[in-house]
Amino acid sequence: MAYVDFLSPLHKKTKRDYLKRVNEFPKAEAARLAKQYGYDYWDGDRKTGFGGYYYKEGYWMQVAKPMIEYYGLKPGDKILDVGCGKGFLLYDLKKEIPGLDVKGIDISEYALEHAKEEIKPFLQLGNAVELPFEDKSFDLVISLNTIHNLYCFDMLRALKEIERVGKRKYFVVESYRNLEEKTNMLYWVLTGECFFCDEEWNWWIKQAGYTGDHSFIYFE
Where are the domains of the chain? Predict the structure, then answer.
């Protein structure tokens, strides 16, 4: 198991006004709308989610290329994205290596309906806590900013499922290292349920028997 950071460069490009987040619109209502994972979350106002989650040429390639290089991905390898959303990363992975066998699973019908047309055939509705795949059926399972949206008991189940179906694994979740980052995370995050520091996440990893790679996102 290794700490491998693919996401921080993208995360740090976004400027966040944490105080505005909690003052301009009732946070509880924003979270209620966001956790429906429909239009409001993906393509509605920034107050309730992404404010428009669209494919940007080259954006996810900044993650896809390092991931391909690090894991030595090649044509024929089977990749699963748990919490794939609109499938943009899978699209870029397959664009870079057309022979990849990719699959994505997500609980959001809206995201799957509005995925890139080219990747839609490889995506399906489903839940991270019960992956409908055989043991070790994927060469690599990835999960980006997904399992922290579950209650801790389901997050643990999801982590065990990722371990079960993947030969190699990578996940990234939100975390904090100090009270400033914890406060910023509580102000900003709309869909999260697991608000843990690094030490707690490492404890959960051990409880799950997880042997793959991981990294953390911080709200600095």
Answer: 8-40+57-217
46-56: burial string, b at 16+ Cβ within 10 Å, e else: ebbbbeebeee
Asked if 133 and 165 touch (Cβ cutoff 8 Å), the reply is yes
Summarize pLDDT for 36-55 with one digit per residue, the tens: 999 999 999 999 999 999 99
Which is it for strands 123-125 and 140-144: parallel, antiparallel or unpaired? Answer: unpaired
> How far apart, in Å, are the Cα atoms of 122 and each of 45, 84, 117, 119, 145?
28, 11, 10, 6, 20
d(CA 88, CA 104): 10
Alpha-carbon gap, residue 114 to 88, rounded angstroms: 11
Task: Read off the DSSP letter of residue 115.
Answer: S
pTM over 0.90: yes
Residue type, 176: Y
Residue 102 is which amino acid?
Answer: V
**How many Å separate Cα 4 from the centre of its chain?**
15
Give the CATH fold of the 8-40+57-217 domain.
Rossmann fold (3.40.50)
Q: What is the pLDDT of residues 69-78, one digit of tens each?
A: 999 999 999 9
* Residue 97 CA to its chain's centroid (Å): 21
